Amino acid sequence: MLILAIILGLLPGFAWLIFYFKEDLHPEPKKLVALVFIAGAGITLLAYIFQCISFKGFFPSEGCGLGLDAAIANSPVLKGILLILVLAVIEEVLKFGAAYLVVNKSANFDEPVDAMIYPVVAALGFATVENFAVAYQLLHTGGLNGEITSIVGAFRAISLRFTGATLLHALTSGIVGYFWAKSIRNFEKKRMIFTGLILATVLHAIFNYLIIEFDDRIYTALFLIIIGFFVIADFEKLKRRKI
């Protein structure tokens, strides 16, 4: 079951990784890509810790044991919105931070499109750990008698995450990366990065809200498709340009 959970966890991230690399005319060094991916995966634990602290701040008696769905359902609207925003900003800042720390001073960071590629790689590392956690949990909830059911459930969950949470992480990090590239090309105007982080956080929070409020995945799918068009357009703007 552990091997299957690892495979299921890796598949969505690697599939989107291949897709995004097609947007780069000059492939990045595999070692650097691997380091960024690992950094993105590594900060998942840090994100979990910060999110636990946030949960305890909003729900002192529940802490990390309370799911996001329950948290929103059991809280006033404003409190629920603030909680979603806090959780989203933690993930967006840490994903970007992982990419920034690894590649910012690298000699291979030499094209504007790299500023989008590497945050996406970090995001996919982050999402891979989340996917593994989801698959592992589902594969171990059925027990011996429910083994087939748990496997089917894990496959279904990972399939949904492939076109859901995993794609979201990549898209929002791509947006931050686009503004990072703009900050480099516009005389180190670092405030552009904060603009990207704010936009990514808001979009991430809206996605989470749609997931919680609507069982029908068509809303989140349409939402991600719209974001995807803009991110692809951003990639095209940065191609063939030099930093």
- What is the total number of structural domains? 1
Give the helix/strand class: mainly alpha
Cα separation of the termini = 46 Å
What order do the helices and strands follow?
HHHHHHHHH
Total number of strands: 0
Give unreliable regions as ranges.
Answer: none
What spatial form do the alpha-carbon principal axes imply? globular
- As a whole number of angstroms, the C-alpha radius of gyration is 18 Å
Overall residue-averaged pLDDT value: 84
Largest beta-sheet characterization: none
Beta-strand residue percentage: under 5%
Q: What's the helix count? A: 9
Helix content: over 70%
What does this structure look like?
There is one protein chain. The protein is mainly α. The protein has one domain. Helix content is 78%, strand content 0%. Helix 1 packs antiparallel against helix 5 and helix 2 runs antiparallel to helix 4. The longest helix is centred in the N-terminal third of the chain and has 29 residues, at 30-58. The chain starts with a helix and ends in a 5-residue tail after the last helix.
Element layout with pairings:
Elements: H1 2-21, H2 30-58, H3 68-73, H4 77-103, H5 114-139, H6 147-162, H7 165-185, H8 191-213, H9 218-238
Helix pairs in contact: 1-5, 1-6, 2-4, 2-5, 4-5, 4-8, 5-6, 5-7, 7-8, 7-9
